[in-house]
Amino acid sequence: MIRNLSARELKSLFLSPMAWSLLGVVTIILAWLFLVQIESYLKIQPNLVARASELGVTDLIISPLFDSSAMVLLLITPLLSMRLLSEEFRTGTIQLLLSSPLSTQQIVLGKYLALIGMLFFVLLVTALMPLSLLFGASIDSGRLAASLLGLALLLASYGAIGLYLSSLTEQPAVAAVSTYGVLLFLWIINLANNSGLFDWLSLASHYRPFLNGTVSTGDTSYFLLIIVACLLMTIHQLEQRRGRG
Amino acid sequence: MAALIHISNITRRYGDLCALDDVSFELQPGEVLGFLGPNGAGKSTAMQIICGTLSPTSGQVIINGADLQSDPITAKGHIGYLPETPPLYPDMRVDEYLTFCARLRKIARSQVALSVEKTKQRCGLAQVGSRVIANLSKGYKQRVGIAQAIIHNPRVIVLDEPTSGLDPNQIQEIRDLIKTLSQECGILISTHIMSEVRAICDRVLILHQGRLVYTGPVTTVKDSALLITLGQESKWDYLAQLPGVSHVEPIDQQRFRLTLSGSTSAADIAQAIVAHGDKLYELRPDQGNLEQIFSQLTLGETNP
Q1: Which of these CATH numbers, 3.40.50.300, 2.30.29.30, 3.30.565.10, 3.90.226.10, describes B5-217?
Q2: How many domains does chain A have?
Q3: How far is CA B94 from CA B99, B101, B107, B122, B130, in A?
């Protein structure tokens, strides 16, 4: 049942030019950043060799690439998530789902998994770039795997936040704008001062350790907490809506 | 036989506005129940509550023995619902959409293709299976909406203004379809077209300002009353003397309502008038009852 919902959602995403144009834009921008990193690496490589530095391609190309991917994908996720529920409210198709023998959990999970499917497709495209370095350099595969896991968790959190905000409004644009607001705010919240709470709340401070190859329970559970909380709030919101009309 | 829909004391408030006030009724198998009421009377709200897309402020809905509150999945499995605007995904093709709906309604995997084909035949959609819904005309969209509601052979079919926006031929097709469907299940249909109610419904409920103000069979049409139109220069005083006429009520210069007694038929009256040498322009059974009831109930009182 959940699969049926997700399949429909993914199909309609890929039928619209939206998904394709976003994928295209993301690929071009990330590829450009990737090339820039490679170029600057090649420039300083003789220096590194001369000083017997421990820094390699993983530090100087892959980590910066993942760092920028997090930001670029922050810019596209709201555009993918905004329509998930708000469009259904606006056009009345939610009535079809609500009058079918489905639980609210199934509706929410179906929508969420479709979004995750799309985002992981983007992740795959992103992952191909560092992997292409395997042709000419040796990379730290453990660290790459950690970075990929970190980015996957980050994207799943972006998606969950986007889905929740999409359940609050009938206007996709409002959902997108508020998702941008929340995501950017969570990204920069630790810039304010070095207070522990702000630092803990920040997406960035939990994402960066993954790029250094550190997979910690604390960081992983932070992301899982965001995902679970947002999904539960979405389910609650959908049920509230039925009561409110 | 147990009722298909059993509703007791449903109340629904939107803030201060009371959209439905203590409404109770039942729908029996094989029955077509017409839901009448002026706009804003609470028809759509009641239908949404029955289909579980809106929860009542208080009251109980039982669908084919399953309580919609405590066992929503079972209860919703028995329902097919067409909301006021058909819930269509414009970017899908008709076949894809119906397949999606069939799966949503938990039709066994092996049966899905068969149900889609059968439903398309029933709703006259066989020609448009591969068309994108956004490009269909309004009539076809409405039919796709009906198709999604009946695809899983539900016991209860709830149709919110199913014939709105259709041309007369399509309306007739939909009415025929509804009649066929009603042999197997109970149908609740909302409309504000009186002739539609007369054409397809067995029983009628009239809602006004959230309250159920009338329920009764549609066929209260008295066979014993006729409306006739005579020529302009006619003298009508002979009408009362015709055999079988018990009362004559002039409506205007040419039109009269005749109340008949005993087994007098319309043919007898026609013959008698012509035999009298008068010109008979029109003769039809008096069906004004429902309209009268409706306007009395919904215009007679207006809340401040």
Answers
A1: 3.40.50.300
A2: 1
A3: 9, 11, 17, 14, 6
